[in-house]
Write a structure and sequence with these properties.
The protein is mainly alpha-helical and 132 residues long. It contains six helices and no strands. The protein has one domain: Four Helix Bundle (Hemerythrin (Met), subunit A) (Up-down Bundle), CATH 1.20.120.
């Protein structure tokens, strides 16, 4: 489906707003010590931020894996984002999948707390890129 410039901007804004909302949900959930849910929300905050960026630049992706691959090819390999950004994205995706689907895997505050600031920085960088 081809989007008009106006439709594209609306979709970019909606995706980015969702990224910010999920980050806020992660912060509130952390206060309740629900770390598996924090892993889920932090991952989805990154996913929706990247989705906003991909839509802005006209990339058509329909899967989580595809989103990660296109992000790596177009933004990490080109130097727009450092390799650490891709590592963060992959780490959160793995943690989210384990915490959602593996009944014996439990995330902890020690694992999750250090990820908040890198996620905030990641989302802020996307925010600056989508405003260009």
């Amino acid at each position: 489906m081809k989007l008009s410039d106006e439709e594209r901007q609306i979709m970019v804004n909606l995706e980015y707003e969702k990224a910010l909302s999920f980050l806020e949900q992660a912060e509130k959930t952390a206060a309740m010590d629900l770390w598996d849910v924090v892993a889920n929300r932090l991952y989805y905050s990154i996913f929706h931020a990247v989705s906003a960026l991909l839509i802005k630049d006209g990339h058509n992706v329909s899967t989580h894996k595809g989103t990660l691959v296109v992000f790596g090819q177009n933004y990490v390999k080109t130097g727009v984002f450092p390799t650490d950004a891709s590592k963060l994205y992959i780490k959160l995706q793995t943690m989210r999948e384990k915490s959602d689907y593996n009944c014996v895997y439990v995330t902890t505050a020690d694992e999750m707390q250090p990820l908040f600031e890198p996620v905030r920085e990641f989302i802020a960088k996307v925010g600056s890129l989508i405003k260009e």
